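A quick word before the example. In earlier lectures we treated sequence and structure as two separate objects. From today on, think of them as two lines of the same record. Here is Cell surface protein written that way.
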Amino acid sequence: MKTKCKVSLWGFIFLMSIFIILTTNINNVSADLTSSTDKAVLQDAPNGISIGDYLGQDTPTKPTADKNFPYTTNSAQIVDRNGSSSTSNGNIISLANGKSTYGALWSKDQTFDITKPQTISFWVYFGTGDASDEINGEGVAFVLQNDTRGMSALGAGLDGLGVFGADNSTVSGIPGSIIIPASYTSKSESYMAGTAVQNSVALEIDSKLNSFWASKNGVPIQLSNAGITSNSTLYSQNGFDTHPGGTPVISDIPGKLTYGSNGGGNGNIAITYPALSSTYYQKGSLTSASSAYGSYDKATIMIKSNSTDVDLTDDKDANNNPIYWHHLTVNWTPAPSGSNIATLKYAYNDISKDGLENPNAKEVSNQIDTSKLNVSSSNKVRWGFTGSNTTSSSVATKLVAFDSIPESPYADASASITDKTLNKTITDGATDKTVASGDDLSLDYDLNYIRGDEDWKSVISKIKIPDNLTVSPDENGNIATITYADGQSPTNIPASALQDSTIQYALERDLTNTNNVAKISISATANNDTSSDINVKQAPASFTGTNSIAMTSSPAFTILAKKDYSLNLSTSSSTDYNLFYNNPDTTFTSDLNLGYSDNAPSGLTSSDTIFKIEVGNHTYTAAEDIALQSGQSAKTTMDFMQIIEGSGDNFWDIFPKDSTQEVKVTAIDRTNDLVSNTLTYNVTVQPDKLLHLNVSDGLEFQNIHFGNKSTYLKRKSGFNLSVTSLREPWKLSVTTNGLYDSSNDINSNMELVYRNDDQSNYSSLSETPFTVATNNESYSTSTTDNISDKWESDTGLLLKQLGLSPAGQYTGTLTWTVSDAL
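And the structure line, produced from the sequence above:
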């Protein structure tokens, strides 16, 4: 009876195995994702760059360590947001689609240079977030590899994530049978290392706890039952994440080492070396493990570096909404000269799908032994992603979308808010994040092209305006400016780019190694008409190019409630100033009075007061030694010249000669976020010294007939001769070289003379300077002496006739010189 029972049981199990193999064996090929869940997830996916030019796959090649290796298909493919299989414009990769599937996509060439800084940022999707291991597992891995199989390289599925070696074991006996208990014989560590992706290092992002201790883990997985082509005796131990206690000590793996995973979160991220034998630790029979496992001769556990528990399946964002797409930014820092130890630093959940930066993102820095990659002289390896699914028919597709990859330019974006009224800048790390209602703000977004072989092309900005801010067009209908590093004139963003509180605008120029910065500045006004402070949340901004995507968010800040009291600024000095240009004795100071209005609350104080000084398009700030207290007035003296020159500007460049300008002064109480009224000074700049000659261009004398023997000929035309001076005594002189006829011959019968008044003698004018007038006064205001106004008909300039001259017209030149009398 017992013998017949045993035979019947084996026969039953054998028939069931055949049936399951025939009905569930999977032949993975590229196909569209068709399930409604997949399509909904894809259509809700973050933006991603087209990846088909960079990643691909070849038919998997079996590892040399096992020509009967059971993992021989590759389900990875590139899809678009509609789920259609696409290798041209697809921006999402599907690594595992369906139960027990696994796959890998690799860079089409060795493009990851380990001797240069590299960045890759991407989104990963594991499932719907209900913390079910079977739905969300197994996980994905970012891998650097130098496997000779190239794009055909592939590791084991299931807990192997498509990159690790196979934890294969064979069974004898009957699993679950009390009569003939099953025992399992595992492969060696070297076998597992040999069946992994060779010469590799992996950033494992594991969404399922594969542990012997986990009751929900179930029994070891019979590969044929799971739909993986193999004989019925082949099993996966399914226990890579087991943590038996203790700490491994292995000299050839850097970092903090652990056995498996602590299982403290719904997921795990760690550094592993898939092709290293010491990565696979085998422990003797685990008698304390679940009895469903039977009796292992050796149980295989993976050793991980810097294993970190994370929430990959049921995380929540700041608004308590479930997070399905998780963002990671991976930065590679090359090993220093003479060392093999590089640094791989990742930030997890650093950005939400809406584009909000997470200041509390988990960041982990890892040491990477690059010697394990066995690179050639080119120092380049392939990069790629692998992934696998659980055996559940409800398992979610494993998806990855990319912001930037090693081949694309690495770009970064950051945001800040400048309060132009209170003269302060708000960033995520600022301690003071308050503004007052009515303050003029500038929302500033800095786009930085950091490195790359390609330009950052066709960048489209999409900026959400924070709540309680009003964006108003300027007089030309523009709401923002874009300033580039190349020094060209800023470009304007028109008001039409603002729709539904979001600005969407395409940059006119690509960012390059030379034109590597673009700054977008948006003018806005803070609004709070309530009696309570308003806490304004972050607002996302994305900058999407064809080959790289950068995201940031405006910092959170607070708009203070309106105050019913004010800060008052006045002066006892004149607000009209006359300055003498470039005069070393010039001073420009003013007395200032500052205080709170009478209705200010008692006990109100401030020790952080600054003054904003505006001259034309120049703005200066000064922190005067002034303390404020309600009920009292504070006084200070402001030296405008010292403030301007202390900022590095030349005072007389700001106040040029012969100019009239307004100087506006406003006080800012930064303790209580109050801004005073504005005082306006009218400043006129006069020349420090002035000496100017005004003289007519020509002078005519009276006509005479031949034979006229008059000695002195009078002026026929009017003549203007004056000197204007300011703090400059002067002397005026004149010279002439005589009169000439039309043949340019000198007329010796006539000479020019000068007579100061009717009591003076006539003085002949020649090439020797003759002093016409002097003034030794140094006038404090500009003064004009009109010399020709004093001339009579027989004084001033006259023409003396020495003899008879032939008929004709005679001309000559007078040269007037005014000079410093000293």
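Notice the following. Residues 1-29 have pLDDT under 50 and may be disordered. We will return to this example when we discuss secondary structure assignment.
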